[in-house]
Target: UxaA family hydrolase
Amino acid sequence: MSEFLGYERDDGSIGIRNHVAIISTAPYANDTVERAADIVENAVPITHPLGRCQTKPDVFQTYRTLLGYGTHPNVYGTVVIAHAGEIVDGDELASDIAETGRPSDSVNIHREKGVMNALQRAVDSAREMVQEASNQRRVPADMSNLTFGINCATSDTTSGLCQHKATARAAWRLIDDHGGRACFAETPEFFGGEHELAERAVDEETKQEILDRVEHWDQRLQATGYDVRGAQPTPDNMDGGLTTIEEKSLGALVKSGDGPIQDVVDYGAKIPDGSGMYIMDTPGHGAESVTGIGAGGAHFMVISTGQGHTLSNAIMPTIKITGNPGSAERVPEQTDVDVSEALVGDETFDWAGEQLWEEVEDVVNGKLTMSEAMGESQFAIHRIGPST
Model:
């Protein structure tokens, strides 16, 4: 398959979903966002506890992340809801979204003279967008348009041995065979493997950037007075047989394959359009990492899990893959692709990669993932500093 069926956007991007997003700029608009999304079929609420009393680096990061979702290839249009005069300005956000040609509206609870008026305005606007979106039809698009997000969750001893290998094979198939791109993250989970990873950089600048980002995370974590090696591996990792951060890191890096790394991008920043493998500088916290990659514009995410995980994203479909037969049996609703036969049976890792690739082809053409069908989603923007 060299093409998929997607939704054309005015900015030239192609989506694999056609969502209408309703985004809050601050926690005080969250309830209104949730209520509006409950009323309007196919509207996706995006709520969070940030956007107020933050230092400038955090304001910029919060804004960039929200803008990334409002302009995501899988989003047809957006309603932005603010509470009052916020540090993340709703009018500005809606205006920046509209510059991409997407329908966009800004609703302010104070300006509308109360929650009920604001809710009515948001519902009317979102409903109109959803109706317009329903008229749009999928069209053939080249696979080179796609961005493959990569993350792991609840890793165990099977992760680096099996499912991470399948993930890497599928990601590099998109890159090598179709000219697409992929992005992995979780910088603190490079600890102990960063020098091996840096050797894959396409140039000396990118190599040093990888090492600098890891060093920055090490210093940042140690500045709290708490050694990260006391927090990693996590209890569920240790339950799955991982013993040290180095062991976890070397296993985690398997999911990126062994090909060249093109660049490192900031949290929530746009993933470059060029073909190849990229790194996004995120924490190891799964919900924050996945949220950042989604903001970067990844069309879909493969979450490679050892013991099963509910981690998912409403805008960016998440495909769960495991090579742990116990996990596939224990949490079947968290398993889109079971490749455990490559670990405990007679199948090969090439077979495992093919199983995942076939699922990717189905999902980009419209098949709902398990988490989509069950309505599961988490959204967590990583923060840099304290509230003011």
The chain has two domains: 19-134, 142-374. The two ends are 52 Å apart (CA to CA). The chain has a mean pLDDT of 92.
